[in-house]
Specification:
288 residues, 39% helix
Amino acid sequence: MRDDAVQDDELQADWRWANTDDWEPPSELDTEIAHPARMYDYYLGGKDNFPADRDAAERIIAAMPYARLSARINRQFLGNAVAFAAERGIRQFLDIGTGIPAVGSTSEVAHRVAPDARVVYVDNDPIVLTHARALLANHPAGYTTVLQADLREPAAILDHPALRAAIDLAQPVALMLVAVLHFVRDEEEAQQVVAHLRDALAPGSMLILSHGSQDFMAPETAEAGAGIYSKASAPLVLRDRAQIESFFDGFELVAPGLVQLPLWRTDEAMLPADWQSVPGYAGVAVKA
């Protein structure tokens, strides 16, 4: 294993490079329509977003003042869950709906625990791919892979040659669906998408999932948020606890189970005072 201090310095350098100002937006990028990945980047204080993204994000913040806190707490969950999986022997991570690279990314956390871990990032936004590929330049070849694909087409993801080259599906994989399923409508077969991915995984694989929920907000707030996202490139589909728990069919939840997002393996005394306003659930589960 490499020296931890050296490894951390390299990871921070990777992230800084992936967020420089001297890049050109991909030609296929539509900057006139807000995209959830770029709005999320704005919530986290990033700069890889455009006026349409910032305008939509500010309207969400006006309707849901806890949006920035929710993004930070979700990022914390991602890091905690990735470390949990890596510490329990998972060495393959399939992160779908990656978002724009930021400090605390899946590869950063996984490689801190297990430098030999293999990470595949999947996203449908060209700007995510541009930055993620820049980030890879300082990574050992073969340990982190980026591909452009859509969660709503799971077969295309699983059959992608780059994924097949990077991940052995006969061995356990951590499937990461972090703050992404609430952008998939029921009519787009969200349940079947997760089942398709689950069935391709070996026993011992894990599902790491977080999802927005209307259980923690007034109906008019949920309606306002969904209305804003309806004009973006993906809708916002808030689900209740039972609906979210159904995504774990075929997996066994690990303690503490499916809980409000800030509470997943976190000391409540360490949480910000307004943590109860975070409107989402999170859980990690193992495939038998």
